[in-house]
Amino acid sequence: TITAADSPSKRSLIVVSNRLPFVLKKAADGRMTRLASAGGLVTAVAPVVIKGKGLWVGWPGLHLPKDFNDANIPESDPSDQSPTAGLKSEQVVTVNCDPDLFEMYYNGCCNGTHWPLFHSMPGRTIFSADHWRAYVKVNKLFAEKTVDALERCSQNKGNNGVPIVWIHDYHLMLCANYIRELAEEKNIEFQLAFFLHIPFPPWDIFRLFPWSDEILQGMLGCDMVGFHIRDYCLNFVDCCQRNLGCRVDRKNLLVEHGGRSVRVRPLPIGIPFDRFVELATKAKKVIKTKHKVILGVDRLDYTKGLVNRLKAFEVFLERHPEHIGTVSFLQIAVPSRTDVLEYQQLKEEMDQLVGRINGRFSTAIWSPIRYIFGCVGQSELAAYYRDAAVALVTPLRDGMNLVAKEFVACQINEPPGVLIVSPFAGAGETMHEALLCNPYELDAAAEVINRALTMPVDERTLRMSRLRRREKEHDVDHWMRSFMKAMGSDVEEDDIGTTR
Ligand code: ADP
Ligand code: G6P
């Protein structure tokens, strides 16, 4: 419980996530350097951790020697403009574990089981007792490191109020109870929160997982559990009732468990809207063709619906040959989880499909698809978003999808472009003025593409201005404030807002 005397800005925040906000890289001369990780979580949370002198517990992206001391983490480079630049090495707690164990936990359980299952793709899900055991062990390791961090916080006399431990995502769903046990032995006070960045599936999918009770008990170890949208909250509440027999209150989103009442909250994430506007304003032109560009930007992941998207574009070219030679589809796909077979197979399938469609429709001076397999910098990305006529954000399933929001923020040109979004992404639930497109329905998707390309200017302008207004208001700082409120704590304006 928090007393009125608690000064919110002085409450320490300990963030726990699988990845740290930067990865450590070994340079050729053996020196260790920091490379900022991008993404909503980092941009949202880093300023609060930095200002509040909080701590971040996570995996540094490489396997460090057993005797590695966190004091040897390098400070950020003076030229580093990323949101994590101000995070001091003393604010970082690395979790280091045996490479074989980590492989079974990360690629086995997190990427091979939780990721597909929580995206309602049981056909792609591997169930393995060995992977599960590794997941349990690694969650314990994260919990031990978190309790070390809590001890450090409680020794810091400048902090008053109860520290908040905020656990993120499907990698760490068991951490909470281990943290509780260890910290209570040491008489450390704290509050625990969890946020899931991916969907929470309906009960008939979730219960396929042989250890689903343990997952729920793990999440219920927190005082508050957050999801992007209300539907995921309701799925979670439903699973708690049906799997564990918990008493639940659907209206107020409460679950009774172990004598405690756990709050379940929809907390839709936002983006650093103003930062993207600034990037888009300053970015140099990268799209230099006269053709209208339909843009896709994603990690190369089977949940993103890339194969369906290419097939829908092919149907569009068949049904609307009037666009041939005037429109091209640019897909930028970042390599992701390349050690996992499913991702390797997807890469092959994409290469073949792009080749086939380009072979079928290209002329001597035009090809329908441009495909970049790689990561582009944020400023370049903002230029692509700004100058695209249409963004195709059509995942088969997605927790929220930040790309849809980033595109909207960068639409500063007059007249603006059009956003197409899948109803199976959290963004499809909240971005009401976008055109909806079911990625499984190829003919209809082709017609939505045509509608976007031929939409009258007035309609485009009205839709985009409403989308932009909402995203500006519900930006990442708003998300952070909503989280603090859900924890019963307000944040002083000055403690957030550094994302601009
Ligand atoms: P996910 O979290 O599943 O990857 P999101 O759309 O929510 O999906 O977030 C993806 C983030 O990664 C966005 O911030 C986006 O800008 C960034 N990103 C995605 N693809 C690329 C790319 N090809 N190059 C650079 N950044 C990318
Ligand atoms: C999604 C997950 C994140 C994850 C990211 C990149 O956004 O919600 O937790 O960090 O994908 O995946 P990776 O496996 O490279 O960390």
TrEMBL record:
The chain holds residues 15 to 514 of 857 of the full protein. In the C-terminal section; belongs to the trehalose phosphatase family. In the N-terminal section; belongs to the glycosyltransferase 20 family. It comes from the Eukaryota. This is Trehalose-6-phosphate synthase. GO terms for cellular component: cytosol. One of its GO terms (molecular function) is trehalose-phosphatase activity. GO terms for biological process: trehalose biosynthetic process. Signal peptide: none annotated. Transmembrane segments: none annotated.
